[in-house]
Amino acid sequence: MGTIKLQNIRTFSFHGCLEEEGKIGSDYRVDLEVKTDLRKSSLSDDLNDTVDYVLLNRIVVEEMAIRSKLLEHVAHRIITRIFKEIPSVSRIVLGVSKLNPPIGGDVEAVTIEMEEYRN
């Protein structure tokens, strides 16, 4: 087994419960970790034998572009899509952070983290 991590994927998205957040947008950071079997690709040196991190990044960016009120909702969509499109992924740990959230304080980021295993 092995782990593939994509760290600090940055997007400008329009998530949030406030109407203004849907119009103004904010900066977000996504951290993704997937568990998969890397033994075959370590021997074959063939992209077809591993999880393509370009595809992982595309899934994150496309799902982050779809407005959600809650970070949990967009995270769930990302997890569901990865499991659907990449059968070799057995576990996902996903963090979605809203940078400089409008919560009336000096807060660098609010982060939700979800961990899911393939059923």
From TrEMBL:
Enzyme class name: lyase
A Pfam family recorded for this sequence: FolB
Keyword Ribosomal protein appears in the UniProt entry: no
Keywords: Folate biosynthesis, Lyase
Keyword Lyase tagged: yes
Described function: Catalyzes the conversion of 7,8-dihydroneopterin to 6-hydroxymethyl-7,8-dihydropterin.
Protein name, per record: 7,8-dihydroneopterin aldolase
Organism for this UniProt entry: Flavobacterium aciduliphilum
Lineage: Bacteria, Pseudomonadati, Bacteroidota, Flavobacteriia, Flavobacteriales
